[in-house]
Amino acid sequence: MPRCLVLLSPSANHVYAGQSPRLSAAELSIICPDIRDAAPTTVAGVDYLSLDIDGLADDRLAAISRASATMACFAREGDLLRPVELPHTDLLDDDLVTIPKYQGKTNEQFTRLLLNVTLAALRGSPARRRDAGERLAVLDPMCGRGTTLTTCWLAGHDAFGVDDDAKALEAMTAHLSTWLRRKRLKHTTGTSRLRRDGRNLGKRFDAELRLPGVAPLTLAALPGDTRDSAALWGRKTFDAIVTDAPYGVVHGAHTASGSHRSPATLLAEAIPVWAGQLRAGGALGLSWNTHGLSREDLLSMLTEAGLEPLDGDQWSQFSHRVDSSIQRDLAVAVRPA
Ligand SMILES: C[S@@+](CC[C@H](N)C(=O)[O-])C[C@H]1O[C@@H](n2cnc3c(N)ncnc32)[C@H](O)[C@@H]1O
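Above: query sequence and S-adenosylmethionine SMILES. Below: predicted holo structure tokens.
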């Protein structure tokens, strides 16, 4: 069985970089079950992820390439490292995601990790479409300035968002429109009034990107409260929902009684709404600050909403420190197929 060494991309955030080998090992074991014993290792003073892989078949190399922190891959042959060419899996340059810098932005590598492990959990028809390389529909119902949405585009999926911060949606719209123009990619973007029951709810944003040889990619973001997401999107359902809940530091969790440090009240009301927007076999991936809500309580909320949380050993490896007031974890739950 070949022993591979994966060189990890540096992260702009040094606290995250220190934890990235451990998080990447957990991610790889979920997105590519053929990978065994992924473990951080150091060779000649350089950090790698070392793994046993059952043959270097294309789909396994594609999984390594897609992993959130992969920079390069080598097969270890005695004392030598032979470069292994990884397939190019992203549809777009990653500066679409990395250029915006703002307080409260979700770490880009972590966003990719959350998307990857959520899509790995799909079952039934969404899983079959994923395995056939078809485009999936992903919703971020608290999308902020759109890190998840643009990450979905990179990975080749349609992206849909909701946020109650109109300024965040405007900033995302401006960045995406400028980026598409600057890259000279064929696209259309536009804003229009969002009306429901005769009321004006603000501006919605729509974008379509036409790349050669691929069906057009869609991105749309609606202004509004995440607990109204089902009403805002109507009958539309999603293969996956991927979201980073407010940590109570830069962003509070907005509910009828104000802005809260803990996301517990908001999530208790929002999770059942999101569960109803998932297709059968679809998956919800959520990250949150465990200082405001325990993992156990979050998993109970997911179960009460009729979802099946994934809670084996593999899934309990993702808790990590962001700073003194944020310990971030992730949970993934599936709507039974
Ligand atoms: C951690 S931030 C997400 C950041 C985003 N991933 C990014 O990188 O830009 C959480 C988001 O939840 C939004 N939010 C909080 N309460 C909300 C509510 N009740 N409805 C909709 N959005 C809400 C905040 O406006 C904020 O944008």
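The chain has two domains: 3-84, 95-334.
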